[in-house]
Prior knowledge:
Helix content: over 70%
Number of strands: 0
Shape: globular
Strand content: under 5%
Oligomer: single chain
Structural class: mainly alpha
Amino acid sequence: MLHYLRREPGFYKRLFLLALPLILQNLITTSLGFVDTFMVGLLSSDALSAVAAANALLFLLQTAIFGLTSGLSVLVSQYWGRQDLRAISRCLGVVLYAGGSVVGLCVLLLLLFPHGAMALVTNDSLLIQIGYLRITAGGYLCSLLSAVYVSLERSTGNPKLGTIILSISVALNTALNYCLIFGKLGFPAWGITGAAAATLIARV
């Protein structure tokens, strides 16, 4: 059975060089949410609950973006294999238009009706009044653009770009969280609003 694992020389090296940045990207993306949750949790349990409630709605946007980029990756990988660049451009355009429409509509609804959206996931009036959702939602159009182009690069054999972009985003988000949540280095202490602003800036 082990003979099925035998490949031409250099195959597993190329596989490792492609897979490692993808693993790092998933770890970095997960850590982005962890940093927000950890730092906001240092403020109060109410702040942490508000962020958790808002993220339950924002997860829908993340799922939509993930679905779009997953489909794009499959198609682009196939077209890249036969060097059909026109088909790749067409796929990119369709995903940008479709994704921009869906994500843009969701973001618009969250910006216009944040309290009604929060009421879907919590009945606590204190949590509903916190504007974390409205501020953070605005960055998801930028997340869509970066996710689509990172997926495109990854499917054409260049996974390093996504790792670099996400690493910069996490580092920036962590630093801004520290400054804007707790008022360090001369910045105002905005609390949960600072966490939302840091996340928005990092996504942009």
